[in-house]
Amino acid sequence: MVSPVAQLTTRIAYGATQLPRVAWYVGHGEIMRRLSRAAREREASARPKPQTDRPVPERRQLFADMAKLFQQDLANVEAGIYPLPADHDGSWLKLIARSRLFFEDLPNVHRRRESGEMQQVLTEDMRGKRPAYYLQNFHFQSGGWLTDESAKRYDIQVEVLFNGSANAIRRQALPPLHELFAGRDQRRLRLLDVGCGTGRFLDAAKQAWPRLPVIGIDLSDAYLAEARRHLRRWCWLDLAVANGDAVPLRDESQDAVTSIFMMHELPPKVRRAVFRELARVLKRGGRLVVIDSLQFGDEPDYDGMLARFPQNFHEPYYLSYLEEDFGAIAKGCGLSHVRDVNAFVAKVMVFDKP
Ligand SMILES: C[S@@+](CC[C@H](N)C(=O)[O-])C[C@H]1O[C@@H](n2cnc3c(N)ncnc32)[C@H](O)[C@@H]1O
Questions:
Q1: Is the pTM of this model over 0.85?
Q2: CA–CA gap between residue 146 and residue 138 (Å, rounded)
Q3: CA of 127 to the centre of ligand 1 (A)
C-alpha cells in the first residue's frame, strides 16, 4: 500500500519532468509551423495544401488524448510496472545544440517538400549497400537514415512531431512485456528490439529491467552509434547493424521482440518478411509487441490527420501501412493477435507465439 505522501511525491516528480518536456517540444512545433507558413507565403508556393475528406481532430481533442496517454504512463508507474521515467534528454547545452540542429535543417526539409526531392541519399557510393527502399530521405530529412547529423536530429524531430509524447508512447510497450516477465528472473530472459534507431525504447526497457539482456538491431550505422552513446550506462546490451528481414539470431531464441515506429517505414513485402523473422526468432510462449501509428478506423476522428500525414512528410509506405491487416500477417506467421491498445496517435499491438 503506497502512502498518500509517496503517491503525491511521485505525481509531482512525474509532472515536473514531463510538463517542461511537452512545453519545449510543443514550442518547437509551433515555431516550425509558423516558419513553414511564412516560407510558403514568401515563395507563393504552388504546392497544394494537404487534402482529405476524412475528419481531422481539433487541437483541443489532440491535447486531451495526449493527456490520457500521460495519465496511463503515470498509472503504469504507480502500478509498479516501471519506475518514474528518466528521459535522459541531456543537459541544457545539449538540448540547445539539438534545437539548433533541428531549426538549421528546416529550410532543407522545406525545399525537399516543395520540390518533391527525396532520393538524395541514393548516391553511387551507397547503392547496393542497403536495400533500395531504405535509401530515401524519409520525412524529407537531410541524410535519410544515414548520417551522424540525421541521427542527432532524429529524437527532437520525433518528439516535436508527437508534442513531447514519443517516449511516453514507447513506454506503452512495457506493460505487455511486464505481463510476460513478471515473476521470472530477468537475467534469463531475452529481448530483441528491431529497428531500434537511437535506442530510446531500449533505454526505457533497461530502466524497467536493468539486468535483462537486450539486443537492438538497425540498418543504420549512424543511428546505432547514437544509440551506443545514449545507452552507454547499461550492461547486458548488444547493438548490431542488421536487417529486420534477416535477423542474425537463432530460431526461437528470444522471449520477447519489440519493434517501435518501424512498420510504417517498410514496403508491404518487406513488412511481411520482417514479421516472419520476428516470429521465427521468438520462443514458443514468447511475445511480440509492435508500436506504430494509429491505422484508419482506430480513432475515426483522426483518420483525416493520418491521411494528410504523408502529404506533408516523405512517407512512401505510410498509406499502405494505414490499411495493413497486422492480425492476418501475424496469423500467417503462426502468431496469435492478443490485443491492440491505442496510445494517443499510436497503437500498441500485442502478438503471442503459442
Ligand atoms: C522511424 S525509425 C524508429 C526508430 C526507433 N525504433 C524509435 O523508437 O524511434 C525507423 C528505424 O527503422 C530502421 N529500419 C528501417 N528499415 C529497417 C530494416 N529493414 N531493418 C532494420 N532496421 C530498419 C531505420 O534505420 C530507423 O532507425
A1: yes
A2: 11
A3: 19
